[in-house]
Design a protein that fits this description.
heterodimer; A: 311 residues; mainly alpha; B: 492 residues; alpha+beta; 11-stranded mixed β-sheet; 4-stranded antiparallel β-sheet; 13 helices; 29% helix; 23% strand
Chain lengths: 311, 492
């Protein structure tokens, strides 16, 4: 187990370095520059030069790359060009929101998908209707679904706030603001989880030991919940890990509809402003989180399937 | 006597009802910094001009220049010396008194091209600026400048405390009726009533929250849900029509100084050919664009100036919509059915209305056999490729700065319009001592641009804001980008 973790850690570090270097290199290829994005349309060449100097953008790329790596070694992600604030501070503000949103969204998706998948497997006549339902959910774009929820729950039945995020000072208020976006996210992600769970359950149900269980006279609900569910959830866990990583910045549409200051909109702003330090910090953080999710998934495997060994 | 007392009491009561409260205003985008002297992003003055940051003079709602930190001044377009008499007893939001020293510091920095101040060209005719006493400032100019006072009213000319430059970018301190409280990155900007404001009784509101809401649907939902009181600008025509019918809301429309401009690269084929540029003018049906794309909001224009600005010349009919004439001009230039005119039309992603107009214009051009290939690029790419590099053929964008015809005097501006005649007219305009002559020259410049068909000026963009019915005192026009909340109150 310790050896496994150590190897994963080294691999993670290599992944992070590679991701950081790749993003640095690819940013050099992008047209546009942060100076113009800050100064605006009518900036004078002198103002451009002055700002370039103060941001250190007049140095050659290799020097900037080494500077940045040096900062990383000191746990310093540098300062955002767009916001004039330390990158780490910005990431911290946004990460708590995005993690909460993704967690709630995926939890909701799972809470919806798993019972439906069990129902579909248990009662085959329902299968078609349920599959149809989730296909409809999947085909509704989140910007549409989100706006429908907005009007339903914030405008016509003013139960929940329409948009924005008040911060974590009052967790109750924060949750109220996250409910609609999380629901939107949950409904849009439920379909893929449902499909995976259904397919996986069906496959497990065709195994010999299930037949044995049934032959012993174990009642069908018990067969499903006790014998089939746990092994069938392995691919689900993998999927959740992948989705979690993707949604941290992939929920940008939901963030826009509900005006949430999350990582997705931060990434978009950073890209539009060519805010190199912020983009690099973001990619690095994302890579770190995805690596972390993968390790967690691997560890969960062990809990779900005793045959998995960490060697 | 008793009657009078009752009246005074009533008045006091009415006033008390209009005081206080928080106003929440949605704006579309977040600016990169909060200092209008560090970036020309129009979102900065939208939130802060006059509300927080003020200069010697300012624009009112109609676009007239009125006193701000200067009580009165002596000077005219003929003068080389301008004297400003400052308002006494004014304090900055940090408590320090406002004096002539702050003015001297500001304009010494503004006219230094190395300082990184926006638009140093506005101030380049200033030879010296000195404090005669703590409340008198004297500017000496190298040569008379028609636009000197106008430039002092621009957002670039706001004055902060002496010596404070870097901090103004994220923590602006000024003399306005509201003081800056916080900039929550990605969320919004909070302002609070400044109790030491020099105009008695102002402002009415206690707090103002400008929220960044980039999505028009989210804005509308937030307005309907009561999360915000005002959508400060850029309400889409469709949404404006819907809100107009709802008794809980009102829609405010007026003029802006934004010319929506189809920019053409005058230095490159095919648009280095005057006949081709003129063909474009005849091929674009501006009335249909206003009706069809903007649902009737907006005014067709024919040159680079907006109807709300002084010395405007209506040239919208200079090139009547005439596809046959356009085809003939193209034929003259060597294009025809066998050799159609082809080019790339670059649209900037963040501006939905310019984009929609661009698509409609491409379709109109298609009617005369022109093949405009649409290409959408994101903002940073547009800035570097089109705006700075002039590496494009045709594009469309809104030019929102007021009184910006001077860009045509710059041959390296992205239209690449190189006209000695225009430059001469512009210099004459700047230097002429006679305001009437200046106005004539301004009109002549507009005509020259139209004759040279430099760009297709499609329309003056409408100002459309929407708000709850109880919001009173909102500016109807945008003579300069400013969501001015000085006199806004909530009727109860």
């Amino acid at each position: 187990m310790r050896g496994f973790l150590l190897r994963r850690l080294l691999l993670a570090l290599a992944t992070l370095w590679l991701a950081a270097t790749l993003v640095f290199a690819s940013l050099l290829l992008l047209p546009g520059d942060p100076v113009q994005a800050i100064l605006g349309l009518e900036a004078s060449p002198e103002a451009r030069a002055a700002l370039e100097r103060s941001l250190g953008l007049d140095k050659p790329p290799l020097a900037r790359y080494l500077d940045w790596l040096g900062g990383l070694a000191r746990m310093d992600l540098g300062e955002s060009i767009r916001y004039g604030k330390p990158v780490a501070e910005l990431l911290e503000e946004r990460l708590s929101l995005s993690l909460a949103l993704v967690f709630l969204g995926l939890l909701g998706a799972l809470a919806l998908a798993l019972p439906l998948a069990l129902l579909a497997v248990r009662f085959p006549p329902l299968d078609l209707a349920l599959s149809g339902l989730v296909t409809v959910l999947q085909s509704l774009p989140t910007f549409f679904l989100g706006v429908v929820f907005l009007y339903l729950f914030a405008v016509h039945l003013p139960l929940l706030p329409a948009s924005g995020f008040p911060g974590w000072a009052s967790p109750r208020e924060a949750l109220r603001h996250l409910l609609l976006p999380a629901l939107t996210l949950a409904l849009s992600r439920a379909a893929i989880l449902f499909r995976m769970a259904r397919a996986s359950l069906l496959e497990v149900l065709s195994q010999d030991y299930i037949r044995t269980a049934r032959a012993k006279g174990v009642p069908e609900p018990s067969v499903l919940l006790k014998h089939a569910l746990k092994p069938a959830s392995l691919p689900l866990v993998t999927l959740l890990g992948l989705e979690g990583g993707f949604l941290l910045t992939g929920a940008v549409v939901v963030e826009a509809v509900f005006a949430l200051p999350g990582l997705g909109s931060l990434a978009l702003t950073a890209l539009e402003a060519r805010d190199y330090p912020l983009l690099q910090g973001l990619v690095l953080t994302m890579a770190a989180l995805i690596v972390l999710f993968n390790v967690l998934v691997d560890l969960l495997y062990g809990l779900l399937d005793p045959r998995v060994e960490y060697a | 006597m008793r009657k009078w007392l009752a009246l005074v009491l009533l008045l006091g009561l009415a006033l008390a009802q209009t005081r206080g409260g928080e106003l929440r205003v949605a704006i579309l985008a977040e600016p990169p910094v909060l200092d209008p002297t560090a970036s020309t992003s129009q979102e900065i003055p939208r939130m802060l001009y006059d509300n927080v940051l003020q200069g010697l003079v300012k624009f009112n709602e109609k676009g007239e220049i009125v006193p701000a930190l200067a009580e009165r001044w002596q000077g005219s377009p003929t003068s080389l010396t301008w004297t400003f008499y400052l308002r006494k007893g004014v304090r900055f939001h940090n408590g320090s008194p406002f004096t002539a020293e702050d003015v001297v510091f500001k304009f010494t920095r503004a006219r230094d091209p190395k300082s990184g101040h926006t638009h140093p060209e506005y101030y380049q005719d200033i030879q010296s600026v000195e404090a005669k006493d703590p409340y008198t400032v004297v500017f000496r100019l190298r040569q008379p400048n028609q636009d000197f006072l106008f430039n002092l009213a621009r957002p670039d000319s706001v004055i902060g405390p002496k010596g404070r430059v870097e901090e103004q970018r994220t923590n602006p301190i000024g003399t306005g009726p509201f003081r800056f409280v916080a900039w929550e990155r990605g969320v919004g900007v909070r302002l609070e009533r400044f109790d030491g404001y020099y105009e008695p009784g102002l402002p009415y509101l206690d707090r103002v929250f400008f929220r960044f809401l980039p999505d028009p649907n989210a804005q509308l939902a937030a307005l309907r849900a009561g999360d915000i009181h005002v959508i400060g600008l850029g309400v889409s025509p469709e949404n404006a029509l819907v809100l107009q019918r709802d008794p809980a809301f009102k829609v405010v429309t007026g003029f802006t100084t934004t010319e929506i401009t189809v920019g053409m690269n005058n230095s490159r084929p095919p648009f280095n050919d005057l006949r081709v540029r003129r063909a474009m003018q005849h091929a674009v049906d501006k009335k249909a664009l206003v009706e069809g794309v903007m649902l009737g909001y907006g005014t067709p224009i024919g040159s680079h100036r907006s109807p709300g600005e002084r010395c405007y010349e209506d040239l919208s009919g200079f090139y009547p919509y005439d596809p046959a004439r356009a085809r003939a001009l193209l034929q003259e230039a060597g294009y025809g059915p066998n050799n159609p005119l082809r080019f790339t039309f670059t649209l900037a992603a963040p501006y939905p209305y310019e984009r929609r107009l661009g698509e409609a214009i491409a379709a109109q051009l298609g009617q005369i056999g022109v093949q405009a290939r649409l290409e959408v690029v994101e903002w940073a790419t547009w800035l570097s490729r089109v705006f700075r590099g002039a590496d494009y053929q045709m594009t469309i964008i809104g030019h929102s700065e007021p009184h910006d015809i001077g860009i045509y005097a710059n041959p390296s501006y992205y239209f690449r319009y190189d006209s000695p005649r225009f430059r001469e007219l512009y210099t004459q305009y700047l230097r002429t001592p006679d305001p009437n002559r200046a106005c004539e020259l301004m009109k002549e410049m507009q005509r020259l641009l139209a004759q040279d068909a430099v760009n297709v000026w499609v329309m003056n963009a409408p100002y459309i804001a929407a708000m709850r019915r109880e919001v009173m005192g909102w500016w109807q026009n945008q003579p300069t980008p400013s969501l001015n909340v000085t006199r806004v109150y909530l009727a109860r």
